């Protein structure tokens, strides 16, 4: 039983990572038999993994179609940003000076987003930005918060898919992520908190606007 649960954990993590990476988008089907073959897993294990993804609000069952990656609705945006404010602002507020490892990981995410921007790979830009914000929550050194926030950024990634122009939606955040990182490196928590608060306010406003286009 423990081995089966461990495999289910792995499948959930990998499918969630595919969502965060933009490889699975809203409306895509998760076909049970394909997953059974792909992961060399039992049907029960796959069903458990899909059920858990449904609990994480990443998939839904559609009659006559099966399990599909779900679409985030406008009414969910406020809750997602309430969680972001709670965790990201708290992480900055209680953070200490960044360790070399923390700084290097954040810098790598910022640089990877910049390189993706140069390639005009906006899907990758979004992914690296989300990873950067996951690293901010990681400053709290809480496995529980890390696991929970992974579910949140997966939902955010699904929300990004509502953008009619991914470049216009993603481009403004590159410089602001860099600003927050620079403030954290300088251990300027008050300024970093203010920058993050404004970032989240603007991001929520623009995210809501995604659902207002025809």
Instruction: Just give the CATH class of the largest domain.
Output: Mainly Alpha
Task: Indicate the percent of residues in helices.
Answer: over 70%
The largest sheet, given as strand count, sense and whether it forms a barrel, is:
2 strands, antiparallel
What is the first-to-last residue Cα distance? 49 Å
Element pattern in H and E: HHHEEHHHHHH
Count helical runs.
Answer: 9
Q: What is the general shape?
A: globular
Number of strands: 2
Mean model confidence by pLDDT: 93
Describe the fold and architecture.
The protein has 2 domains: 63 residues, Winged helix-like DNA-binding domain superfamily/Winged helix DNA-binding domain (Arc Repressor Mutant, subunit A); 137 residues, Up-down Bundle (Four Helix Bundle (Hemerythrin (Met), subunit A)). It is built from 9 helices and 2 strands. The protein has a two-stranded antiparallel sheet with strand order 1-2. Strand 1 and strand 2 form a beta hairpin. The longest helix is centred in the C-terminal third of the chain and has 21 residues. It is globular and about 50 Å long. The model has no long low-confidence stretch (mean pLDDT 93).
Primary descriptors:
single chain, 214 residues, mainly alpha, Arc Repressor Mutant, subunit A, Four Helix Bundle (Hemerythrin (Met), subunit A), 2 domains, two-stranded antiparallel sheet, 2 strands, globular, WH-like_DNA-bd_sf, GntR_C, DNA-binding transcription factor activity
């Amino acid at each position: 039983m423990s081995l089966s649960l461990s495999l289910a954990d792995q499948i959930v993590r990998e499918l969630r990572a595919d969502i965060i990476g933009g490889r699975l988008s809203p409306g895509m089907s998760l076909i049970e038999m394909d997953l059974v073959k792909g992961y060399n897993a039992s049907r029960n294990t796959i069903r458990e993994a899909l059920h858990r993804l449904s609990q994480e609000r990443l998939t839904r069952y559609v009659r006559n179609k099966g399990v599909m990656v779900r679409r985030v609705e406008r009414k969910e945006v406020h809750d997602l940003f309430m969680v972001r404010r709670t965790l990201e602002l708290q992480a900055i507020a209680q953070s200490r000076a960044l360790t070399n490892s923390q700084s290097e990981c954040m810098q790598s995410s910022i640089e990877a987003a910049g390189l993706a921007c140069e390639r005009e790979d906006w899907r990758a830009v979004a992914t690296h930005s989300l990873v950067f914000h996951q690293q901010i929550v990681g400053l709290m050194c809480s496995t529980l918060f890390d696991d929970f926030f992974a579910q949140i950024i997966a939902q955010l990634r699904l929300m990004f898919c509502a953008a009619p122009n991914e470049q216009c939606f993603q481009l403004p955040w590159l410089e602001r992520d860099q600003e927050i990182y620079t403030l954290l490196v300088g251990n300027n928590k008050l300024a970093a908190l203010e920058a993050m608060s404004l970032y989240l306010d603007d991001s929520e406003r623009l995210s809501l606007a995604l659902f207002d286009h025809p």
